[in-house]
Amino acid sequence: MNSGMHEFLAQDRVIWGKPAAQAVLEEADRRGAKRVFIVTSRTLNRTTGAVEKIRDALGGRCAGTFDECREHTPRTSVIAAAEAARSADPDLVLTFGGGTAIDTVKVMLIALAHGVTKSEQLGDYHLRVNPDGSRHTPAVKPPPFRQIVLSTTLSAAEFSDFGGCTDPVRKVKDGYAGKQIGAAAVILDPEVTVHTPEWLWLSTAIRAVDHAVEGICSIQSSPLIEATSLHALRLFGRSLKQTKTDPRDMAARLECLQAAWLSGFGILRVPYGASHGLGHSLGAVTGMSHGYTSCIMLPHVMRWNSDVTRDAQARIAEALGRSDVDAPRAVADLVAGLGLPTRLRDLGVEQSQFDQIARGAAENLWVKTNPRPVNDPIDLVRLLETAW
Length: 388
Description:
Elements: E1 13-16, H1 20-30, E2 36-40, H2 42-47, H3 50-58, E3 62-66, H4 75-88, E4 92-97, H5 99-114, E5 128-129, E6 135-136, E7 147-151, E8 162-167, E9 172-177, E10 183-188, H6 198-216, H7 223-245, H8 250-263, H9 274-286, H10 290-305, H11 310-319, H12 327-337, H13 354-362, H14 377-387
Parallel strand pairs: 1-10, 2-3, 2-4, 4-7, 7-10
Antiparallel strand pairs: 5-6, 8-9
Helix pairs in contact: 1-3, 4-5, 6-7, 6-8, 6-10, 7-8, 9-10, 9-13, 10-12, 10-14, 11-12, 13-14
């Protein structure tokens, strides 16, 4: 008989169907927040009016804005965000953006909870794989305040209490987790996503597809994760291409936001596989976005795992509406049909980097739990070669 457990997030609600500013104000009121600190990207803050609308709605309750988030969340940007937050003295953070901003705040909240002021101190709090293969999760104190998230991409970072942060010295992206570092509430307003560049919107959707696929194929399957992941794939199969054809189709964009939500139920709830693990290392070594790492690596990892995940992959292909082909082909066709990159060389990755990428990935907890065991970094090099 199977045994298992699902730990639900410390997340009160997911809100859709309301304009972003209205939803933010209602959440601030509901939480009694008097000083709301906004964390966002430079692009959203300095080239669109979207953040200004939120600041105007908050009025005197806006305690400040930090817009120096950087892709792959280097430790230095987390420390800078923590310093800005200490100066602002908020009682709530509004994170307005995608995975980069959300992960910045997750790790920032750990830094604030533990009085971290230097980059190297963050090394005490990231997840590790012990020599026996078990996971070491450092104890993390509750943060001094929570974050709520206004989502602009489809990476689903807002639906987990797991964040990634890159150590530029080791060139490794470490994982961080804490019960209250994730979003207490999430606001899904498709109108604010029109500022998201097309490549980022579409590629983060494939990142969410990656969550769903590796959740369904997990070595520790869960009926809840399979159900939510399969429906996420159905929604993406129905609406994702439509958002490329007609970027102003708000119904399709909302369906994609909801698909990302459903895809995120498995993050740190079931073990993922080598697509996620290699993606973290590819990002740390080459700077490639996680959306693009999933576009390129996911079909190849699925093919590598096909003998041991055959039944699960048949359900994946059916959910994507592609019972005429196998699941790796269905995902590869989806990626290519969206005009996204399909080979590592498309993005300037050199074969000379493969050994470093493989060494970094070999430390990753999700490579350790790939459905088909990865016994040596050379297996990872071979996977990279098939994707080059």
